[in-house]
Amino acid sequence: MIADVARISRLRGNRSLNLLPSKALGASVVLIILVPLFGVFAGGFLSPHNLVNIALQSSILLLIALPMTLVILTEGLDLSSGALLSLCGVVLALLLVAGYSIPAATLAAMAVGLLFGILNGFCVANLGMPPFVVTLGTLGMAQGLALALADGNAVSGLGPEIEAFSAFRFFGLPVLVLIAIAAYGIFHLVLYRTTFGRYVIAVGGNAEALRLSGVSVRLVHGAVYAISGATAGFAALCMIARTNAGHPTIALGMEFDAIAAVVLGGTSFERGNGWLFGTVLGVLAIGVLRNGLNLIGVDTSLQLVAIGALVIAVLLVERLASERSA
Amino acid sequence: MTETTEMPAIRTFRSDAGAPLDPELRSIIARFVVLAVLCAGVALLNENFLSVANFTNVLRQASLLFLIAAGATLVIIAGAIDLSVGAILTLSACVAAGVIHATGSSGLGIATALAIGISAGLANGILVAGLRLPPFLVTYGMLWILSGGALYYMGGIPITGFPREFRFLGSGFLLGIPVPILIMIATALAGSVVLHMTTVGQQMVMMGANRAAATLAGIPVRRNLICVYVASGACAGLAAVVALGRVNSADPGMGDPLLLPSIAAILVGGTSLFGGTGTLLGTALGALLLTIVLNAMNLLTIGSAWQPFATGIVLVGAMLADAFLNRRRS
User: Fold this and answer.
1) pLDDT at res. B323
2) A304 and B151: CB-CB below 8 Å?
3) What distances in angstroms separate CA A130 from CA A123, B166, B321, one per listed residue?
4) What predicted TM-score, i.e. pTM, was given to this entire model?
5) Which among A144, A323, B112, B283 has most CB atoms closer than 10 A?
6) Which residues of chain A does B145 touch, with a Cβ-Cβ cutoff of 8 Å?
7) Which of A227-241, A287-301, B8-22 is most confident?
């Protein structure tokens, strides 16, 4: 019943119910516990320099996690986005080295991402293939292409323009953070203020009703993957700006952080329940977790274990809660 | 690559009156034909391909791939998925390597690998079947937990050099045949017997074809799901022992490149991702086919960076072929 009210209110664009923090319980709990904890125990955690660092890291992750939220809303999964980000980064870097301008190279990278996204979307939406296997296949293709194109090494020597781009600030906010905020704005408008966004929510919630009302469910469903691919292409620009090189394996596994962020943010794999701002909280939670654990010297390997355990714990709590309310 | 027959949802229970050939048999024959054509093609391009040394090598590689895919095949037939097999192999191999170096006992090492595989499978099974969490997300989360655990355990330093008797399972010969190939045949036979000739096996097929009907028919769906996940973990543990014996070294990245090929081998082998159909012989042929493709790329000196690309193409291609030829789902 409550879920129905929430769904209807979301479809009407009424966000009052969606702002309930309980929807992003995982992310909220992690942030509320970890921020003070790291503030006390991790030296330099609350320093401005470190906070900017977290924001920069989180902004790239957010660019992957926002489209991932849409994909998960349709009860799907995009395992290829980390590998796609790497591949698009290599393409972007190669084009910059070849002398193309930043906008032209970015558009080309986005086109590469879009092509892979369309392949994913076609297989999932038109052929009814399980998304995690389709995107596992394209993950392999993108990873192989990235390694082959870059010949296994980082592509560097990108010229002064990209350095000027990454150094750009507006009111003290780094350009990557501005991009992330703008991207959130766009995704928010698309999801909550357009017909397409309502269809996306309905694909996961009730695809049959959508089909009966004459909407091309396949097109909407496939478009979500295409958006995910194109956004990964754009995120490559941010990654290049941050690292000043196109590395063929740099973002492998980033899709896991993105999926974890979406799950922590309260978007459920069942029935298309989701909350886009929860994904922002989830991304921040992952960013804080990784950064704080780095500062207190916890190995990257244990960070993986922690995030994996966190995801399963959130799923477990959701399952128990839904069983109680049922 | 794929046959064009229409398969009923639960073809195992059909008496095959009227059908000229069992669809499962046809599918296997079709794969043998593809395999033969592929072998002939590669042999024409490179004369080394059919040499005994190269072919033994191919079979050995395929046997490792088959072992890791065998249990996952059962999971998929039963209507779920296991994305954690590569990571289970990694953790089993790393900890077993540590145990062997600490105690010097090969038996203890094998037991460790199997125990870790079985416990990881049990954890997957309990989370998926007992607590009804989404299988792909649980096993994907488990993938990172296990590989993170392996990375931490190894601390960045590989463990190399194992006793001769331990390496026997991975690189030894019995009656002139490499032991991994014998293990592959034994696993395929045992798995096929369970799948096709026991009640539990038939129940797995049924619950993969229609979970709701299977539950209503009183099949212990949850128990069987836990069983297939445990089998998948045990297979990955066994594969870890074979892999350790073969490469004589354990490192925390050894299982990562195996996940994609193992799923590809299962798909190429004709197992439906939607559950309810599939054979272990098909997976063995799929593993062999994929290994031959990768081996041919090596022989033709195509850079190893293209291998994940080719594997991805094979996986997506197999799915597309399946979708266009079968059109079982609208």
Assistant:
1) 75
2) yes
3) 8, 39, 15
4) 0.86
5) B283
6) 304-305, 308-309, 312
7) A227-241
- Per the domain annotation, does B73 fall within a domain? yes
Which residue out of B138, B140, B294, B322 would a mutagenesis test of the A interface target, given it has the greatest number of A Cβ atoms within 10 Å?
A: B140
Residue A20 lies in a domain: no
Question: Is residue B9 situated within a structural domain?
Answer: no
Residue A271 has a pLDDT of 61
Contact at CB, B313 and A139, closer than 8 angstroms = no
CATH of the domain at A227: 1.10.3470
Distance CA B48, CA B68 (A): 28
**Per-residue confidence at B3, pLDDT binned at 50, 70, 90?**
very low
Mean pLDDT, all residues of chain B: 85
Cα A86 to chain centroid distance, Å, stands at 14
Give the number of other CB atoms < 10 A from CB of residue B309. Answer: 21
pLDDT in tens, B128-174: 998 888 898 899 999 999 999 999 998 888 888 888 888 888 887 88
| ipTM of the complex as predicted | 0.84
Q: What is the count of structural domains for chain A?
A: 1
Give B238-278 pLDDT, tens digit per residue: 999 999 998 888 888 888 888 999 999 998 888 888 888 88
| Residue B119 counted as domain residue | yes
Task: Give me the residue label for tokens 């077993």.
Answer: B96
Can you tell me the distance from the alpha carbon of B204 to that of B224, in angstroms, rounded to the nearest whole number? Answer: 7
* Strand B173-174 with B177-178, pairing: antiparallel
For the range A33-39, what are the long-range contacts, defined as Cβ-Cβ under 8 Å and sequence gap of 24 or more?
A34/A285, A34/A288, A34/A289, A34/A292, A35/A288, A37/A292, A38/A288, A38/A291, A38/A292, A38/A295, A38/A296
- pLDDT over 80 at A326, yes or no: no
* Selected residue with higher pLDDT from A146 and B29: A146
**CB within 8 Å: A144 and B267:** no
The residue type at B279? T
Quick check: is B121 in a domain? yes
pLDDT at B5: 44
**Residues A133, B309: C-beta atoms closer than 8 Å:** no
Side chain identity at A161, as an amino acid letter? E
Domain span including residue A200 = 25-33+46-269+279-325
User: Per residue in B32-66, is it b (16+ CB within 10 Å) or e — as a string?
Assistant: eeeeeebbeebeeebeebeeeebeeebbbbbbbbb
Task: Look at A301 and B308 and tell me if their CB atoms are within 8 Å.
Answer: no
* Mean pLDDT on A153-159: 84
Q: Which of residues 61-80 of A touch B (CB under 8 A)?
A: 77, 79
Residue of B nearest to A131 (CA): B136
- CATH (domain of B243): 1.10.3470
What average pLDDT score do residues B198-205 get? Answer: 90
How many folded domains does chain B comprise? 1
Please give the interface size between A and B, counted as residue pairs whose CB atoms are below 8 Å apart.
142
Q: How far is B327 from chain A (nearest CA, A)?
A: 9
- Is B123 part of the contact surface with chain A (CB cutoff 8 Å)? no
Q: Residues near B103 by Cβ (< 8 Å), separated by ≥ 6?
A: B109
Q: List the beta strands (DSSP E) in A148-269.
A: 169-170, 173-174
Calculate the alpha carbon distances from B314 to B34, B44, B126, B294 in Å.
13, 21, 32, 11
Using a CB–CB cutoff of 8 Å, tell me whether B294 touches chain A: no
What pLDDT, on a 0 to 100 scale, did the predictor assign at position B18? 46
Q: Is residue A6 part of a domain?
A: no
Q: What is the DSSP letter of A48?
A: H
SS3 content of chain B, % helix, strand, coil (to 5): 75, 0, 25
Which residues on B lie below 8 Å from A129 (Cβ)?
Answer: 273, 319, 323
Q: How many residues does chain A have?
A: 326
Residue B259: domain span: 48-320
